[in-house]
Structures are given as structure tokens and as C-alpha cells.
Amino acid sequence: MNNVVWLPETVQDGVIIASEKQRENPLIAKLKEVRVEFLADLGVDFVVSRSTGVSICSLRYLRMSTMRYIQERMELSRPHYRVCICLVHVDCEAEDDVLLELNRLCFYLDHALFLTWSLEEMANVLSSFKIYEKKRAEDYLQPYRVKQLSYMERAQAFLCALKPLTTRDADILLQRFGSIRNILNANKTMLMTCHGIGQTKADAIVAAAGNPFFQDVDDDEDDDDHDDQTKITLQLNRQLG
């Protein structure tokens, strides 16, 4: 192992360094968002930055061989990179004992474990690490952030789940009563004093207010088994998450 290269002299922007052994790997053809350069005697399969090394393997190979193979590779590469990744192609039926042992190895040898089910997915993981190499953690999370709704927005969504109430109806009710609690506590006559709230809409609100709210709702349960009031309650629970 004396001739092994762990850290290339330079890792350019948009370039992933691959071991020469990976040249014939069909995965290389899937790496379309980055450029790949090959280096002989590279200690890991891929280097995506001077601090990140990636070892790849297939689950089929792990099932046929022993975990000692991947364990030795992890032990050798760990001292050379701040971030070590074990990228696995699940190309056969997954067995719990194999995955549990692999997860245990990654935990104790400080490797991040990624399971992928296609070469395209493997390429996407590698490309993403390169593309986001110099970005902040917030940039990774941005596409997945859930918008934080204000109280009025949540209250409006709550009321609009009661058909046939509209957004305008919700605004008028909230302006008149001030809160969801006050709206649900209002009787039918009080509700109908609001502009645009007729008997049908008032009945929908009263029906929902008179039905208990359940903390746990089985989303798979067939709504046909419930009466109209319970259907409204189920819809509200789903709307509010």
C-alpha cells in the first residue's frame, strides 16, 4: 500500500477524481453533471473534494463475499478524509442481517452510509456532493424547508377545509370572531350574521364544531364508513397535519 494516493494534489471545481479501476464501471457514464478524471493507485473509489472520499460497493457483492472486504477499505481510508462515505448499490434483494452489519461498520468506522437502488441514483449522490461542495448547510436544506405559516394562514386553511367555505368566507369569519375557537363556539344564528354565510355554510361549521377531534386518524380508513360530520372532522385533521 506504499504507492497508494489518498489526496490528489488538486481537485478542481466540477471534477470528481476516480480510481483507474472504475474506468469501465457503467456508473461513470451516468455522471453527466460533473467531469471525471482518473488517477492510478487512488486509495478510494472516488474523491469529490480534498476532504471527502467515497468507497462504493454492491449489495450483491457483499452478500457473496465477507464484510471484511469493506471493513478493511474503511479502516484504511478513514484517517485521510474529514468526510468518508460508503455508497452502496442495492442490486439484489436486501437482507436485514447484511444491512445491519454494514450499518454497524459505518457507525463504528465513522462513515456516512448511502443506499441507492440504481446507477442513476448513485451518480446523483456523487454529483450532489460535488455540486454542493462549497455551499453552506442551509443550501442543502432550502429545497426541503416547509413554509412556516402564520396563525391567520393556518386558521384560513382550517376553515377552507369545510366545504363550501371559501377564502373570503374564512377572512370574514376571522375578522368577526377573532379566532377559530370563537367561530366554533358561535351558534348558527351568530354565524349567519356574517356577510356571505348562509344556512349551508353555517350548518357545515356547526356540524364540525359538534364533532370531537381525534389526535390519531387512520388515513387508510375508508371514509364511506363515516357519517357526514365525521368526514368533515377527518378532513380537518388531515388538513392540519
Automatic annotation (TrEMBL):
SUPFAM superfamilies: Restriction endonuclease-like, RuvA domain 2-like. Pfam families: Rad10. One of its GO terms (molecular function) is damaged DNA binding. One of its GO terms (biological process) is mitotic recombination. Its main location: nucleus. Keywords: DNA damage, DNA repair, DNA-binding, Nucleus. Residues 16-130 form the ERCC1-like central domain. It is found in: Nucleus. The keyword DNA-binding applies. InterPro entries: ERCC1-like_central_dom, ERCC1/RAD10/SWI10, Restrct_endonuc-II-like, RuvA_2-like. GO terms for cellular component: ERCC4-ERCC1 complex; nucleotide-excision repair factor 1 complex. Belongs to the ERCC1/RAD10/SWI10 family. This is DNA excision repair protein.
